[in-house]
Amino acid sequence: MTEIILWAIGSISISLIGLLHVRGIFFTRELYPKSRELMDTMKNSKLEVDENSNVWKAWIGFNVGFGVGLFFMGVIGGYLAIQHAELLKTERLLLMFTVFCSGVFAFIAYRFLIKPAFYALCLPFLCYLAAYILIMVA
């Protein structure tokens, strides 16, 4: 039962982080550059892959996609923990990929984002990892 609780905690936390990320783009200016000149440069910089887009639109899109991806991962993990705990215990591939992906998200935050995001993303990673270990040794 401890492993299911850990999985649920990891799932809830990664969902909340995803929602906060989307909030930071659409409802606050937390994920916007402080420099107005930089934002204008981003808006006027075309992407090589598509002349109709610009770096600012890509910035918004990537941030929203990252947040929605975190939210989705958490919702699926939480649903499995609450509604299908036995399936969660037997689907080792799903467990491994969830641990791996949450670890990659934490690494991305460590390497490219802000430190609070790294610390926040360590919580679901460690919860998923601990749950995985408990399921494997059971």
TrEMBL record:
The chain crosses the membrane at residues 5-26, 58-81, 93-112, 118-137. Keywords: Membrane, Transmembrane, Transmembrane helix. The keyword Isomerase does not apply. It comes from the Bacteria. The keyword Membrane applies. NCBIfam families: LIC_13387_fam. This is DUF1304 domain-containing protein. It comes from Sphingobacterium micropteri.
